[in-house]
Amino acid sequence: MLSALRLTWRLTLFILFLVSIILVALALRIGDLFTASRIDRTPVAHHSIQILCGLLGFRLNVRGSVAEGPVLFVSNHISWSDIPVLLACAPLRFLSKIEVSRWPVIGWLAGEAGTLYIKRGGGQSGSVRQQIASVLAGGRSVLIFPEGTTTTGVSVLPFHGRLLAAAADAKCRIQPMTIGYRRNDLPDPVAPFIGDDSFHSHLVRLLSKPALEVEVILHPAIEPEAAQPTEALAQQLHNTVSSGLSQIHEPRRTSPSTPDEGDALGACASLESRSGY
């Protein structure tokens, strides 16, 4: 009963939020006509998303600070909700799979926010790298997920390094970020968006649950070297992000694990092989 009431309340607020954001996006479209140029949506999206995180029941805790200037952000990837969470931490544009553009309403809003899309397995890494470098050179930060898919949030998959060279192309720094979801002092098994799950069913499950803790670590930015092999750079960033995830999920209670705790961790681990987003 309580979960049904929670779902109804949050879903109502979520729909009202979408309606208001659509109106803002349309207003910006009209503004584009008067200015004869595209108005930067990044600051608007940054502040709006902070409201959305509260509606989703996220208690956000951020460690570290955003680096000055445009940077290439790299982060581990657990769910579609990573995007609003990380966008709430810093004004940025992000890279996403092309399928997101076809999501009703959400896809259109993501496009209005300046999302860069990539078709997985489409051999587009070269052109996408150029797009990212162009955005960075224009003074705006970009977020990418080098794992290339989502995970259960208890480990970090190897990083692909092809797009990391965009930072060196634009002479910008790279700032690694780590995100983790926790509920009852354990990795949350509901937040991961993996396998064949659909957006609307995952959203319903997420909204029906009590608030959860979302931890984000902003690691120090690094200067990529033009001569540094992308594989070495990817491994360096992977080590930093993976270490951050271990910090997020390090035990915070001294009492012995109960059977329920073991079951929760086991549920997360059992999903690992099903990841794919």
What does this protein look like?
The protein has 277 residues and is of the alpha/beta class. The chain has a single domain (2-274), classed as Glycerol-3-phosphate (1)-acyltransferase, CATH 3.40.1130. It is 44% helix and 15% strand. The protein has 9 helices and 8 strands. It has helices at residues 2-35, 42-55, 82-89, 106-112, 125-137, 165-169, 199-208, 230-248, 259-270, and strands at 58-63, 71-75, 93-97, 116-118, 142-144, 173-183, 186-187, 212-218. Strands 1, 2, 3, 4, 5, 6, 7 and 8 form an 8-stranded mixed beta sheet that branches. α4 links the parallel β3 (93-97) and β4 (116-118). The radius of gyration is 19 Å and the shape is globular. The relative contact order is 0.17. Residues 254-277 have low confidence and may be disordered.
Write a brief caption for the model.
By secondary structure, the protein is an alpha/beta fold.
**Percent helix range:** 40-55%
Second-tier CATH architecture: 3-Layer(aba) Sandwich
Largest sheet, in brief, is: 8 strands, mixed
Derived from helix and strand composition plus strand pairing, the structural class reads alpha/beta
Q: Kindly, what is the distance between the CA atoms of the first and last residues, rounded to a whole number of angstroms?
A: 32 Å
Number of strands: 8
Q: Looking at the structure, what is the overall shape?
A: globular
Helix tally?
A: 9
Number of domains: 1
Taken in chain order, the helices and strands follow as HHEEHEHEHEHEEHEHH
The chain-level mean pLDDT equals 84
Briefly note the CATH topology name.
Answer: Glycerol-3-phosphate (1)-acyltransferase
Strand content: 15-25%
CATH class: Alpha Beta
Low-confidence stretches: 254-277
Q: Provide the gyration radius in Å.
A: 19 Å
